[in-house]
Amino acid sequence: MYAVVECGGRQYQVEPGAHLTVNHLNADAGAEIVLDRVLLVGGEDSVKIGTPIVEGARVVCKVLKQGKGPKVNGFTFKAKKNQYRHYGHRQAVTVLSVESIE
Length: 102
What we know:
Blueprint: E1 2-7, E2 10-14, E3 19-23, E4 32-35, E5 38-42, E6 47-49, E7 59-78, E8 83-101
């Protein structure tokens, strides 16, 4: 069984046992999160597509850890002025483990 869920403005295809990295969610490690914006649920023989969400469907996840994503390096400059700037950014992320699709 698999599902497509929306979390933080992005869509993810999930199945039980999968790990999922999403934008930061306010929850402690070990907490249970329920994603109720399920756009599609598929099984061995049928697929339910929501308009826009599937009624009564939900994905139960467990928060594994809070952390930071990979570093994104940036560089700006102004031509012929010897003016430049380096910067880096690491986005806060939450790692989820999908427990079940209901």
